[in-house]
Fold this sequence. Notes:
By secondary structure, the protein is mainly alpha-helical. It contains six helices and five strands. Helix 4 packs antiparallel against helix 5 and helix 5 (155-165) crosses helix 6 (181-189). The model has no long low-confidence stretch (mean pLDDT 90).
Amino acid sequence: MTIIKQFKIAFILLILMTLLTGGLYPALVTGIAQILFPFQANGSLIKLNNKVIGSQLIGQSFTNENYFWGRPSETTPFPYNASNSAGSNYSALNKDYLSTIKTRSEQLQKNNPKKQGLIPVDLVTASGSGLDPEISPTAAIYQAARIAKARKIPEEKILSLITKFTKNRSLGILGEPRVNVLQLNLALNNL
């Protein structure tokens, strides 16, 4: 077999595989996803009055006393910047990291003076991506008194809302119970 014949075969295979794996396969997977899972395939977007206000998959920064606060985000130049997803990559013993944790803990204690004891870890540490849209039910419950006071409503209503929006483990075994912060805050506005 001559070298020209080998190049010809290789070139034909390159074109064929490019069309198959770069065009046909992605089109097939996209089509199946759009038919079977259109909400998820289009970004799990949350709408309010027909306007997209966020996604179930990416957190948002809430700092107002009237709302639940999510996990801190380490993305730059602003929190929950999806185009710059990253964690801090500091070790657990890094002085800057420990200082950040201390500052966040003090801020939470200042805003939740009635709460004693341990602060839920997901309220002071960022996730690996810095985009986590969910917190643990414990982190939500930790904030309930502050929100009830700010909104002048009974704390029991806030706790009931947390229970209502808590998602259990996927398939009963994967992950941990969690609450989507944006959905919880939208439900707060409807109280």
